[in-house]
Design a protein that fits this description.
Strand content: 25-35%
CATH superfamily of the largest domain: Medium-chain alcohol dehydrogenases, catalytic domain
Bound molecules: zinc ion
Structural class: alpha/beta
Number of domains: 2
Shape: globular
CATH architecture of the largest domain: Alpha-Beta Complex
CATH class of the largest domain: Alpha Beta
């Protein structure tokens, strides 16, 4: 089968590999029907994910059909349409039992697929702990609708939950990339008083204003003044930082009102500074990620009910044979791309 493979820093290539087989009794083999490219894949390509192992098949956002299950798999069976979770988790350790599945202590716990073990930009994938890593897609939900459930949408859902949003809140979301938009969709379900999104990219600004006309949009250079003059108590009641740069990290705490929650969803390339003397008296509550991606069933229900729709994010579709071109487009943000779907 064809598999898009991490060869070395800066180099991914389509290679021919053997179809995976069941290795443990809790494994399943899934035939991929649709996959996507995530900015984390680009982080691997650029050599900034130290845990990524050369030779692995990349890709961790995918949906498919269960082909085969190990003897101890109970929740899914051959023929089921499923979403695949970006995180591998045992469901039994201290962290898993508390829902903190990102910190699962199993050797494959956390982000393994497409990083430390073969992922989904290919035809078949082996999923460890299939009972926790796969979720059945309701019949009325299409592959396109379910494509982001296991990764970017799970992230937006988790970030929204831990941000404790109420109906009176002004919520500021920094960054309108795919994860930012998924976060926006989940924040909208909480019906806060107003949502402000901060973005600098014209294409993304247009995407948000075309699809979500009630959301206020501000550019980074005007964001602080705008938030101060459009909120009641000296800043946003909740800030979600999804952009991941030094300036957006600073913006996040500066735009937050005293005693608010600042949720850091973004992954940074380097350490960020908390200037505590300047922040003294703001009494902020910081919450930091990795996503605990264990709410996929709830998310799939919301999609089934028509409450979340991420299909507009899929701006381009490519066959697996042309995945190199898809990367080129996604990496260089060409042709108004938000997300790319890959069909084996
Ligand atoms: Zn991802
Ligand atoms: Zn665990």
């Amino acid at each position: 089968m064809l598999a898009y493979t991490y060869i070395s820093k800066g180099k991914f290539e389509l290679t021919e590999k053997e179809k995976p087989v069941i290795q443990e009794s809790r494994d399943a083999i899934v035939k991929i029907t649709m996959a996507s490219i995530c900015s984390s894949d680009l982080h691997i390509k650029h050599g900034s994910v130290s845990k990524a192992i050369p030779g692995i098949t990349v890709g961790h956002e995918m949906v498919g059909i269960v082909e085969e299950t190990g003897d101890s798999v109970n929740n899914v069976k051959s023929g089921d349409r499923v979403t695949v979770n970006v995180e591998t988790f045992c469901g039994e350790c201290f962290f898993c039992k508390k829902g903190y599945v990102n910190n699962c202590t199993d050797k494959n716990g956390g982000w393994a697929l497409g990083c430390r073990i073969d992922g989904g930009q290919t035809e078949y994938v082996r999923v460890p702990f299939a009972d926790t890593g796969l979720n059945k897609i309701p019949d009325s939900v299409t592959d396109e609708q379910a494509l982001f459930v296991g990764d970017v949408l799970a992230t937006g859902y988790w970030a929204t939950r831990i941000s404790e949003i109420t109906a009176d809140d002004t919520v500021l979301i920094i960054g309108a990339g795919p994860t930012g938009i998924c976060t926006l969709l989940c924040v909208m379900l909480k019906k806060p008083k107003q949502i402000i999104i901060c973005e600098k990219d014209e294409n993304r600004i247009k995407f948000v204003s075309d699809h979500y006309p009630d959301v206020k949009i501000v550019r980074p250079e005007e964001a602080e003044d705008y938030v101060m003059s459009n909120s009641s108590y000296g800043g946003a009641d909740v800030v979600l930082e999804v952009a991941g740069s030094e300036s957006t990290f600073e913006l996040a705490w500066k735009c937050a009102r005293p005693n608010s929650i600042v949720t850091i969803v973004a992954l940074y390339d380097k350490a960020q500074v908390l200037p505590l003397p300047d922040m003294y008296g703001k009494n902020l509550i910081f919450k930091t990620g990795g996503v605990d991606g264990c709410e996929c069933d709830e998310i799939l229900k919301l999609i089934e009910q028509g409450k979340i729709d991420t299909t507009p994010l899929i701006t381009h579709t490519y066959p697996l044979e042309q995945i190199g071109e898809a990367y080129e487009l996604f990496e260089n943000k060409q042709d108004g791309v938000i997300k790319v779907a890959i069909k084996p």
